[in-house]
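Input structure tokens:
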């Protein structure tokens, strides 16, 4: 049985705010919850009745204190995070914004900070970010990614105990997304990697490591459908 086979998805959002002029990106240090102690974009679960874009705008406001007009929020990708032996996939709608309104502020969940493109703290981010965030920054988007994550070996996780909380990704509640048995779309294959392990001196990017990933640059049109093997049949903007 495929340990990355899913039976349902949860819909999440993730927003990166980019200051093009100064070549920097706004990230937030997650203080608690899923992915705690990692730097990440802003986002979370899409609530019932919300579109992913509406959810993304709400989460950005809640977590960073700033507002982005819907027309200024661009879809940069759709990432499907699959966790070993977890039948719930995280269907994550990824957006970017070059303009915002309001004052950036810290909240009890996130501490925002600007990072120069040259100093993005990948070693303290989810391990897959290094595979797709550069595509956003270089404008090589939108993209679709299927990312399979597995827990790091216990010895490594144990040494991370005080660093990153490794919650069961599907243990929290969220609105449910699509589940279908539709066949996969093809798209332009760009990258595939298997069994990447991290050395002891790069341990800080969370309790998970990449087992395998696939990124492609061509996206089918709406509405998307996630297949049980984690591939996507079409795409929603
Ligand atoms: N960059 C990156 N982000 C990820 C990965 N996996 C993953 O779930 N995320 C993002 C998507 C979401 O923005 C966030 C997890 O959402 P969440 O539902 O736990 O968010 P939350 O703790 O803020 O909860 P809530 O506000 O929705 O209640 O982490 C990943 O591998 N890389």
């Amino acid at each position: 049985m495929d340990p990355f086979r899913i039976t349902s998805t949860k819909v999440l959002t993730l927003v990166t705010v980019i200051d093009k002029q100064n070549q920097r990106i706004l990230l937030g240090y997650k203080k608690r919850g899923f992915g705690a102690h990692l730097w990440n974009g802003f986002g979370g679960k899409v609530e019932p009745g919300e579109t992913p874009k509406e959810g993304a705008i709400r989460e950005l406001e809640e977590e960073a204190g700033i507002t982005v007009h819907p027309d200024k929020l661009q879809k940069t990708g759709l990432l499907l995070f699959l966790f070993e032996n977890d039948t719930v996939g995280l269907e994550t709608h990824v957006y970017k914004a070059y303009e915002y309104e309001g004052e950036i502020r810290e909240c009890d969940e996130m501490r925002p900070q600007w990072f120069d493109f040259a100093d993005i703290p990948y070693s303290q981010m989810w391990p897959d970010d290094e595979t797709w965030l550069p595509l956003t920054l270089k404008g090589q988007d939108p993209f679709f990614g299927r990312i399979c994550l597995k827990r790091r070996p216990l010895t490594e996780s144990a040494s991370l105990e005080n660093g990153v909380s490794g919650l069961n990704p599907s243990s929290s509640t969220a609105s449910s997304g699509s589940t279908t048995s539709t066949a996969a779309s093809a798209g332009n294959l760009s990258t595939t990697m298997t069994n990447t392990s991290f050395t002891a001196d790069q341990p800080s990017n969370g309790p998970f490591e990449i087992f395998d990933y696939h990124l492609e640059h061509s996206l089918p049109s709406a509405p998307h459908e996630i297949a049980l093997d984690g591939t996507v049949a079409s795409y929603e903007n």
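The CA atoms of residues 14 and 164 lie 19 Å apart. Strands lie at 8-19, 24-30, 39-40, 73-83, 88-97, 110-116, 143-151, 189-194, 208-216.
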